[in-house]
Each structure stands twice: as structure tokens, then as C-alpha cells.
Amino acid sequence: MRLDKYLKVSRIIKRRTVAKEVADKGRIKLNGILAKSSSDVKFNDVLTITFGNKVLEVRVIETKDSTKKEDAEKMYEILSETRVNAGE
């Protein structure tokens, strides 16, 4: 499944266009390697996403084409969530 679609369906990022933008700016790593929005996401992959002041690391548990809001969180497991101070 495409990275941008996975981020939208799992609701880590609400809109696919935003997910694509974040990936294209080099803010997402897939298993430690810089990822593009078209990168393929599979079971057990580790995603590291840098939001403005936060770094979120998640492990992919499942990939679905669509999901209900309640089930979206079951698609991934949060490994770490770190705050980053922009001044450092």
C-alpha cells in the first residue's frame, strides 16, 4: 500500500494531500530510509514521522484499503512519541 494512502486510512495524518506533502518534504522515514509518498508500506515496517515539534515512531500492524474510525488505531502500534524543541 502507498505510504500516503496508509497514513490517511490509519488516520495518522488526516488528509492524503497533507501526507504526500509531508513525505515529499523528507519528513518521513520508512525503516530508517527517507520515504516518498509512493513508497510501499508493509506489515512490520517502522515509520518515523517528523511533525513540527514532535517525532512519532510507529510500527505497521496491518494495511487495509479503508477502515472505520474506531479501528484505525489498530493498524499501527506507537513505538515512541518525542517532543522536539525547535530552538535546539
Automatic annotation (TrEMBL):
<keyword id="KW-0694">RNA-binding</keyword>
<dbReference type="Pfam" id="PF01479">
    <property type="entry name" value="S4"/>
</dbReference>
<comment type="function">
    <text>Key component of the ribosome quality control system (RQC), a ribosome-associated complex that mediates the extraction of incompletely synthesized nascent chains from stalled ribosomes and their subsequent degradation. RqcH recruits Ala-charged tRNA, and with RqcP directs the elongation of stalled nascent chains on 50S ribosomal subunits, leading to non-templated C-terminal alanine extensions (Ala tail). The Ala tail promotes nascent chain degradation. RqcP is associated with the translocation-like movement of the peptidyl-tRNA from the A-site into the P-site.</text>
</comment>
<feature type="domain" description="RNA-binding S4">
    <location>
        <begin position="1"/>
        <end position="61"/>
    </location>
</feature>
<dbReference type="GO" id="GO:0019843">
    <property type="term" value="F:rRNA binding"/>
</dbReference>
<dbReference type="InterPro" id="IPR036986">
    <property type="entry name" value="S4_RNA-bd_sf"/>
</dbReference>
<protein>
    <recommendedName>
        <fullName>RQC P-site tRNA stabilizing factor</fullName>
    </recommendedName>
</protein>
<dbReference type="GO" id="GO:0072344">
    <property type="term" value="P:rescue of stalled ribosome"/>
</dbReference>
<dbReference type="GO" id="GO:0043023">
    <property type="term" value="F:ribosomal large subunit binding"/>
</dbReference>
<dbReference type="InterPro" id="IPR025490">
    <property type="entry name" value="RqcP"/>
</dbReference>
<comment type="subunit">
    <text>Associates with stalled 50S ribosomal subunits. Binds to RqcH, 23S rRNA and the P-site tRNA. Does not require RqcH for association with 50S subunits.</text>
</comment>
<dbReference type="InterPro" id="IPR002942">
    <property type="entry name" value="S4_RNA-bd"/>
</dbReference>
<comment type="similarity">
    <text>Belongs to the RqcP family.</text>
</comment>
<keyword id="KW-0699">rRNA-binding</keyword>
<keyword id="KW-0820">tRNA-binding</keyword>
<dbReference type="GO" id="GO:0000049">
    <property type="term" value="F:tRNA binding"/>
</dbReference>
<keyword id="KW-0648">Protein biosynthesis</keyword>
